[in-house]
Write a structure and sequence with these properties.
The chain is built from 6 helices and 12 strands. The chain has 234 residues and is of the alpha/beta class. The chain has one domain: Vaccinia Virus protein VP39 (Rossmann fold), CATH 3.40.50.
Length: 234
């Protein structure tokens, strides 16, 4: 990976002529995203994210921390936070913002640690990549939980993006195992990232997968556009 999203985050943090990024998927047109959005404060965050941060307690693992905005808010609340991301550039930006213990590491590679709260926000299911990987990730997350710990994860049901037929059914591509599996491409400063898999999961599918892997599931919040926040726990 070229780590273009991380490069945009680091450019913004260091004032290195940052530009907006362009994202596109295999089911949607290219869209421009202001990189400043990743540096928002608590008051500027969507209600779903504010709810997740309000519910966080104890020792927190912030998975896919990006520019570190969620971690910074939790540290202000006095929580012990471990921000991680696979983007070395993003982690460098986090460290420049004062998150000294931010680390470039894949969730699956964390060992010998336990947490009270594990946060996966801004479509936290995305890192699963494809539906076939959900068991692997849920079991890893479960192994990192302290007793009475919680996983706070958000996603969206993408069913709204597909056309309806005359009977109210949906025209869903048959070449995919699951309609929430997307291929993402990012463009930044004339460069194009290697396309990567990104997973959106409807709540019922997440709930069923959680139960199948020894986790309870609670729907915490539903947004106005098929998005939701869920709590998973043992």
């Amino acid at each position: 990976m070229k780590d273009l999203l991380g490069k945009a985050i680091l450019d913004f943090q260091t004032n290195n002529s940052p530009q907006n990024i362009i994202t596109e998927t295999d089911i949607s047109e290219a869209e421009e995203m202001d990189i400043n959005y990743l540096f928002r404060n608590f008051e500027e965050m969507p209600k779903l994210e504010r709810k997740a941060l309000d519910l966080s307690y104890g020792k927190v693992l912030d998975v896919g921390c990006g520019a570190g905005s969620h971690s910074l808010h939790l540290i202000k609340r006095g929580l012990d936070v471990f921000p991680i991301d696979i983007s070395q550039n993003a982690i460098e930006a986090c460290q420049l913002r004062g998150l000294n213990n931010a680390q470039t590491i894949d969730l699956l590679d964390i060992e010998n640690q336990k947490f009270d709260t594990i946060l996966l926000l801004m479509n936290g299911t995305g890192i699963f990549g494809q539906l076939k990987n959900i068991t692997q990730y849920l079991n890893k997350l479960k192994s990192l939980l302290n007793e009475n710990g919680q996983i706070l994860i958000d996603s969206s049901d993408l069913i709204y993006m597909f056309d309806e037929d005359e009977d109210g059914g949906k025209w869903i591509p048959t070449h995919k195992e699951y309609y929430g599996e997307l291929t993402f491409t990012i463009h930044y400063k004339g460069e194009t990232e290697i396309p990567f898999n990104w997973l959106y999961v409807d709540y019922n599918t997440l709930q069923n997968a959680a139960h199948a892997n020894g986790l309870q599931s609670q729907l915490i919040y539903e947004g106005d556009h098929y998005d939701y926040l869920a709590k998973l726990y043992i």
